[in-house]
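lol so apparently i was supposed to do this last week
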Amino acid sequence: MKVELKNVTKIFPSRNKKVGGEVVAVNDFTFEIPDGKLIGLLGPSGCGKSTTLYMICGLQKCTSGQIFFGDNDVTELSPENRGVGLVFQNYALYPHMTVKQNILFPLQNLKGEDKLTKAEMIERAYTVAKLVQIDDLMERKPSELSGGQQQRVAIARALVKMPRVLLLDEPLSNLDARLRLQTREEIRRIQRETGITTVFVTHDQEEAMSISDMIVVMKLGVIQQIGKPQDVYDNPANLFVAKFLGTPPINVFSGRVQDEKLYIGDAEVLPAKGISDREVYVGVRPEGFALNENGALCCKLNNVEVMGRDVSIVSTNEASLNPVIRSIIYSDTRLDLSGHTEVRYDLKPIKTFIFDKETEERLYVEEN
Ligand code: ADP
Ligand code: MG
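anyway here it is w/ magnesium ion bound
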């Protein structure tokens, strides 16, 4: 089922009545989620991810705009009539019911032609339980399960009604690191197997990047960029997106463009054809530094961290906005910088992004 948002806006009255004013939680969202894809809504806390999700499922009304499932306008439909499955961060299982009863619960209130016989319900419950691999835990109570198992039950409960759209709001936040990794791969597998159009909300860029066909990067209720994770990483539209994606994070320098050349401090680091003279920010991905003893950018060497496959060099530079610069060097030969106090780098053009200092929007260098 294709899902489409058209100029969707949500305005809340201020929570603090004395201060007044209103919060534009979601500002004019227009995007399409193709049938059978998983999209990640990504952004820091408070940027409007949950509000967007709740409007898609119908728990929140849009202040303006429209939502379509396929060709149907569902903007005014109640959640029960939208055919969505919802999973929250805190599982929200019924503690006094067994796993089986929890999964069966949504099927018991089906009316009219959707009504199922007892045997059909049990069959469905076991089918989804197998899918999320909890079919041997059906008689347990939630308190007898680990966090990861509880979250699987919540996913099974959302899937049992065979929703047209699956909505997940930070479903991995309460799990420890190892389980988080495992469960996210699990969600990806289940999504692929069922082919259900899925919206996955998270503030964790690595999580969103690894699981999504497409990500929507948001800030303060405004969409910053939409695209395939790798495309957004390789081509951030502005400084916020560049900084939000990537571990270790992008290195940001303050710099300037003069006579179509890019400078960091006094060092002329790259050509900047087509960009007029101005102050800029220069973002360099950790893998964007190439060691070269005659390189233009000179940094003070702090230390070298060997991480097996690659080497991370930690250095400083007066123009750097990050406290330290972290570069990742893939080296076949052993790197020996002992006795050095400085390192020099060339910057790789495809890993270096220039942003206007005032608007923080990306400036594009013309190719020759
Ligand atoms: P996220 O899920 O990305 O952390 P939310 O969608 O929960 O963000 O919230 C977006 C903004 O809307 C925040 O500023 C939040 O304080 C505000 N907000 C959310 N729900 C309400 C509400 N019921 N009443 C007033 N303001 C709200
Ligand atoms: Mg939220």
